[in-house]
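Notes to self after the call with IL:
- keep both proteins in one doc
- input above output, always
- annotate only the second one for now

Protein 1:
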Amino acid sequence: MQIPGYRIIRKINQGGMSTVYLAIQLSVGREVALKVMSPALNADPVFSERFQREANIVGQLSHPNIVSIYDIGRYKNLNYIAMDYLPGGSVHDKMATGLSTSEILRIVREMALALDLAHEKGYIHRDIKPENILFRENNSAVLSDFGVAKTVSSASQMTNAGMVVGTPHYMSPEQARGKAIDGRSDIYSLGVVFYEMLTGTVPYKAEEAVAIAIKHLTAPIPKLPPQYSLYQKLLNTLLAKDPDDRFQRGREIVNAIDELDATLSGSRPRYMSNTEPSAMHIASLFKALVLTSYAALSAQAKAAVTEIARWRWSPKRSFYRRPDSTVTEIRTNPDSGENDRTTVVSTRIQKAAYFQAGNHRTGFSIARVLSIVLVVGSLWFTFSVALIRFHLPGENHYPIALRNAAIFSAALLNQRDLTAPIIIEASEPEPLAQMTSTPQPVLRTPEPEVAETEINESEALPTDTLPDTDTPEAEVAEPAPEPIPEPPPAPRFALTVNPEPVSARVRILNIKEKYQPGIALLPDRYLVEVTAEGYHTYKEWVRLGTQDRSLDVSLRKVVVPGTLFKNELANGDQGPEMVIIPAGTFTMGDKGSSVTMPERRVTIDQPFAVSRFEITFADFDKFLSANNLGQPDDERWGRGSRPVINVSWEQARAYTQWLSESTGKKYRLPTEAEWEFLARANSEGDYWWTGDAKKRANCRNGCQSDYAGLFTTKTAPVGSYNPNAFGVHDTAGNVAEWVEDCFQNHYLSAPRDASAVKLAQCDLRSVRGGSMKDSAKDITVHHREGRDASKAYNDVGFRVVVELY
């Protein structure tokens, strides 16, 4: 397929409506995901309109958490859209490997921001689900697939009245009814995804879509497991059946998550900081105090009313009068076999304190009054200090008398001189062009007026007329009042980033100051970036609490696929030669055999390195020598550079563990998914090559091998045949290879990621690639069989993987 302006690399994914390819946009040289609508759907105007509308909608939504559109066009009979290439997989993929709660909250927060913009622009996504939340290389979440999105006020006939569009497990109740929906429907769907990320399953399950819809309408909101109980309130608001009870927009979700995050991290109290100039939140603190005081006063008042209702004041006004005894009549059940009789229980309250003299009543009242005065006084002095030190909301409209009284109270706390009057007056009005807000009150203390008089020496008063300052009657000028002290600066704490390599550049992106080791900062969240040439960039929000923090950052080297290397063993020798395999996505399995079905898409998230050749006798002998073990039989085919044979799966595993201990790196056997990915080398046929297998591999029939035929069969030295596109030799034929997985004769329960199949009872291990004893049809990239893990075979060897991260 050819589309002008693009070079198509490979197919990424395929659905019923379109196929997505990885391509290079030649004009700018960037990787893009090229979404091409199926030509068979061109005749259907509904699909064509949806395809066009998706591009139009996304083109209007510029947001870091929404997929970007670069181009839209039509070439011959192909409609296409060029958009962001998102290599990080989907939420569905990441759930298979496990997500931490912090990652889950971050994903929900980023999706809420994306939805907030989409809803603000008037668009409803209508298909929020894990498969439609993808990830960039920096692990940020991106909302994709607006193919069934609609405008809130759209008059489009894309869906008929009562028609339901969406995925049943993620539909909101109103969406399941086929009723009119708005952005709150997407918020409900996001709540379902939130629940699934936490628990690994959707909240409502059933055999049929209708039954699932009914559960969305009627079933109660599920309870989270105890370890996630802190998030139940957030989930309840997301999954409220009535849209009015949910979050009304994405920004509210963000605020709720930030509040929850701050609570969990224990970051309160918050101080004014570079990133949030108004982060003192004195108004919030004041509001909390008001509410607390109100609750205390209400409790006191209720208690007092209760006591008054329970007791009546006696006519003598010196004693409380005891109320009459309470009589309770209890009748037994006649069916109990007893006679129908009445039991009378007399209950008398005999608290001696209530029968004492009236002075005890007075003490009780004084305690009540003192507690109320204490609460009100605390509230008043808090208000006074807040008014002096901060700008409270609407303070310019407070009565002058109230403000003067508050300032007087604050002065008491600060032990100021109270003899001089304190006056609040409005500042001088600024010119209209400069006036941006109501003039703020200015605190000043009036100074005594002194007349300015020029006195000549000739007119000086005689000394006998000057007042005698030593006499008691002499007046002494009072000292000027002390100014109100400035509030102490908020405490700062040191943040030190220790990068590896040490030459890496460190920046804090959300402050103006240049980073220096041990930089003093206020408690807050800071976006730290560490970069170095030849390494992946580290960028993460870091929370600085109320103590110094040292952050160790080890940058990951940028690996180049195809690079060859050897790791050094403990004795100074070299391990097997390794080649780096890139990350990628491929279709695993084959429809032609029951043991390779069903096919499934698998994503290799990270590059890894695999031994370029099958492990040879020379490689394996190093392990045997280090552990004083005997050598396996070579069947007289030769040792040295020939692949090691007659080793069991358990012995192959022991070799990888020895490599790990000797090199300090993590070696292991490849998983089935990794093995098939590296064997395919981005090809889509039965072999990594095109055409027949002649002179391509070492097999008995169909390969024309010099080492195996009708009468002779033996292994070939490794590297005797050309490598595939990844630089890996002998993935087909020569010897079959042990892999990590337990063998099952199907892929029904295989993980969706590249991890190995693990079973409680695992007697058979998978063997891949075929051997010199097989015919060409049995050395395909998808060929597999099971062998006894404890036995050794003369046609089975192995290769190893080392993890790069």
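Protein 2 (the one to annotate):
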Amino acid sequence: MAETVVVTGTRIQATGFTAPTPTTIVGTEQIEKNAQPNIYNTIAQLPSLQGSSGTSTNTFSTSSGQQGLSNFSLRGLGTIRTLTLLDGQRVVGANVTGVPDISLFPQLLVERVDVVTGGASASYGSDAVGGVVNFITNKHFEGVKANVQGGISTYGDDAQYLLQAAVGQAFLGGKLHVEVSGEYDHEDGVPAAGFGESAPNGRQWYRATTLLDRGPTVNDGGPRYLYRDHAQAYAYSKYGLISKGPLQGTAFDVNGNPFPFVYGSGGVPTHNPNGDVTGCISGFCVGGDRSGGVGIGASLKSGIKRLNGYTRIGYDLNSDNEVYATLNWSRVTTNNQPNPGAQKSNISVSCANPYLPASVAAACTANNITGFSFGTDNAMLPNIHVNTSRGQMRAVLGADGKFDLGGTNWRYDTYYEHGEELTWIRVRNMLLNPHYSQAINATISNGQIVCADLVASANGCQPLNIFGGRTPSPSTLAYLQPSNGPFQHTHQAQDVVSLNINGEPVSLWAGPVSVAFGGEYRREYYRVEADPYGNGSANGTPYNDAYPADPTLSTNGSNWYAGNYHNGTGMYDVKEAYAEVNMPFVDTPELGKANLNVAGRWTDYSTSGVVWTWKIGATWDTPLNGVRLRAVTSNDVRAPNLSELFAAPTTTTVPSFTNPFTNPPSKLTIFQNTIGNTALKPEIARNIEAGIVLSQPDWMPGLSVSFDYYRIKLTKGISSLSADQIVNFCRGGIAQTCGAFDLTGPTPYVNVQQFNLASIFTEGFDYEASYQFGLEDVGLPGRFVVHGLATNISSFVTDPGIPGSAPVQSAGTNSGNTPHWKLLLIESWDTEKFGIMLQQRWFSDGVIGRQYIECTTGCPATSTNFPTLDRNHMAGAFYLDVGGTYNLTDQMTAYFKIDNLLDRDPAASPQTNTGLDVNPALYDLVGRVYRIGVRFNL
């Protein structure tokens, strides 16, 4: 009986059918050889994936909710534009953006991963703009298998161990199939280093690289921006620095003793009210006392723990039909440090502060001042830690099989899926801004140092000595960083009902016509609840025992230094119907075989109405042996997600807002409401792909090669605007923004929302080749396989749709996600007893930003859209991995893997402020990693 091929990216199931959309398949063998603790790491190495999110990204984030979240981004279009499926079925989102977390997937039973590098909305619906990543599990596994793995980096961190086991058995004469799997993965991650320039545990690559801004009016022939290592801010220091006025340049050591700060660059404080430093540029010097730098104080990799349980029960009603149920329960916890201390600049400090050293107080008197401006990292405070927990329960009840109707054999699959995702985010050691302001305003009363604010004192205020690094008292810490901390609880739910039918109802001159059709209903819901100190206690939201009422805190929320989460809720549903036809129209020895593949989908969103998607593709197996041509064009969509439609609202008061509708423009106070926009429409993308495939030609049967061109144009892209932009765009004729504000009513407001204004254009080429051959002719056992994939991005242009802004070309920008070239090459030699694998990962040199004009002298006039820069280069990277296996018995295999064998350091990715100046989306921040393990298969 001929095998029926199920190809991700199409709904057609037919013998010998080849889809026109390019698909990369990562099988069990490659997954096992790569020996990663999380299958996400293996798939994310594919060159077509750019900008994926993993445990090395978002580590410096507090409020995004994406810490430790693992999800894919195809073509650099973002995780929200890549559809990730499990056995062709949707998975409930692990974030309000709707993206799932790969860490929550059952991984041991995955037998392959299909990566469709092209639009597939007509087949699978919304979000498949960049493509589809589909995890296919072994649905009838029988036996017992297990995997035990451990690993550690060459720096003694990121210790990891993985335990996996699966059991499968058939009962009732083979009719009942039961399989159960479980796994636990523990990864310590890479901790934050703290202050200064020493990267954690002996890493030597961090240099606080920064782009110093000489200002938009520079006209001396030099560049506006200067690329410099060892940048040091001059508005704050580790233990405190007087940053303006007559005492500017007075710093404090860990014991609170004053000393002259060393600025670097030969910098000399001007002692003026602006706090300028001669010899330094726009807030930064080079060199000097760099102990207060905070850029390397973020975790280089989040710690993660994964616990996953999976069960599938299938029952064969007869030889052609099965009913089944699956249950997946998973929990992932992650932790990271976003930054050390809690940096504060331009603090107003009184010279009467009782903690101030006597010599500095005397200097205040001598200079006839009563206070000064102060900046500090608050290094005496415990560091912030973000702890995230994601729990998922996903159940599927389905049936698949075939039936005869009208003389045609039809196949079907149908299922109902319900998924629940619960996410908890808790932040420890977070500063309450109002409490900090009250605690540093100290005075003496009855011989005791107390808070000067009587209301604050009556509500528990404890004074803080901000001069130096002395550890505050437990009562002061409890007041500044209460144990309750910022908190967010999110509940997401997804329900899907799907029916798909396909068959071959008629035959034409070139063969049978394949037809697939079906429908789907999907409901997405979320609700988020946050602590009242972040969310606010207005509108009936009560304080509680964990967050008691405090008159010194704002009832509008946003009281925390960071992590100000807010309440929100939202829901939408989708109704869809589709049809797909594959028609062979040529099948002769002289002309070869050619098929036409056409699909269309009708989708009705409850928030935005009806949208149509379609696909037209063709394949031609030419008369030339092994040569196939393929091409496909499609119209794809990404619907706005829950976060964009129903973002948790926040309100702030903005004084002196400019009203451009009066003559002359006037100033007024407005309420700025940051909210979702239920009027958003789906993004629309036009995909084109065309290529040639050479598959197993007679003259070289082990060779397969493909070359494909791709082009994606996305319009109506969803983008954010500021309050000023929203008002001014309306005045300039962009009607879409006019309903977002009212400046004439009794309570003027502007709703800061997202709008369908942006566009993205990208094009490039994909290359894939493999060659395998036996080694008997050279007297060696086994087979040798070479497999390579490469992606060339020739263009990636983003247009924000904002008047006056220029489209940004980011192809070859190594500070982002889209290098010009990205390559993955694997060589393996496998025998019955052992196997050896070499893997090379490489991406090309690039620039910091394509908007910069590189020059050192004779520079053209700088501009906002095209500023000048003296060095616009970022080196690419080459990573060498090596692995091997040894079969101890027929059922037991030992293996090892070394990632980044040469311990390649990341290149600097400078910013216009000191921060973590590396790009974890491209570069390896961990370094060399060793792994060993044993697999069992009984």
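Annotation: The radius of gyration is 30 Å. The first helix runs from residue 28 to 34.
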